[in-house]
Specification:
By secondary structure, the chain is α+β, with helices and mostly antiparallel strands. Helix content is 57%, strand content 11%. The chain is elongated and about 70 Å long.
């Protein structure tokens, strides 16, 4: 028995309250939210946001995320530079956490979103169940991407000993926060229902 989508049965689900109504309805009769069988221009918006995130990701890793002023001398540090410093100091768990959360997670999320857009645009996607699980994974790991920004905020707030040592955020902190926000919006803009559309049309042939 092959499963069919709600749209093929003339139904649409409300994204706000999950009420299932006729596809001819313009607004949800329960919460008055606008109804869409598929998010308008979902792939185009997601791809545009992915490109913006990749552009912002370069300065986030190449420019200093912190500036440490120690006894009058300024020592800027990038994300990878901070990871190397922590590793050399013997703080291996912290170095690994920052490496995973600030480098691997954003790259992984961007790659996964790019893969999902490609799968959804294909006429015959491979293994849509795996793509659906991948989408849920992107939503789960996105919340861990701000660890490095939180570390910078804590350092700036707590470590300021007059003229001896002070921490200041660099431009990369703003760029990195923008990357996280843009990827979160991109994940929200992507409509996972697109993955199943071509699969259903294939099963009906």
């Amino acid at each position: 028995m092959s499963a069919t989508s709600a749209r093929s049965r003339g139904l649409v689900g409300c994204a706000c309250c999950a009420l299932v109504v006729s596809i001819n309805e313009q607004r949800c009769p329960r919460c008055q939210s606008r109804l869409h069988s598929r998010t308008p221009d979902s792939l185009q918006r997601t791809l545009a946001l992915i490109v913006v995130a990749w552009v912002l990701y370069l300065p986030a890793n190449l420019l200093p995320i912190t500036n440490t002023v120690y006894l009058g001398s300024n020592a800027p540090s990038t994300i990878l530079g901070g990871v190397v410093t922590l590793w050399q100091m013997g703080s291996y768990p912290i170095a690994l956490v920052i490496l995973i959360a600030s480098v691997l997670v954003p790259i992984g999320k961007l790659l996964m979103l790019s893969w999902l857009c490609w799968q959804a645009s294909r006429p015959r996607p491979r293994n849509p169940q795996q793509s659906a699980r991948l989408y849920r994974l992107t939503e789960f790991i996105g919340r861990w991407s701000m660890i490095d920004v939180f570390v910078v905020a804590i350092l700036v707030a707590l470590i300021k000993l007059g003229n001896i040592i002070s921490f200041y955020p660099g431009f990369a902190a703003l760029s990195f926060a923008a990357v996280v926000i843009v990827t979160m919006i991109a994940a929200e803009q992507f409509d996972p229902r697109l993955i199943w559309d071509s699969t259903e049309s294939e099963s009906n042939e």
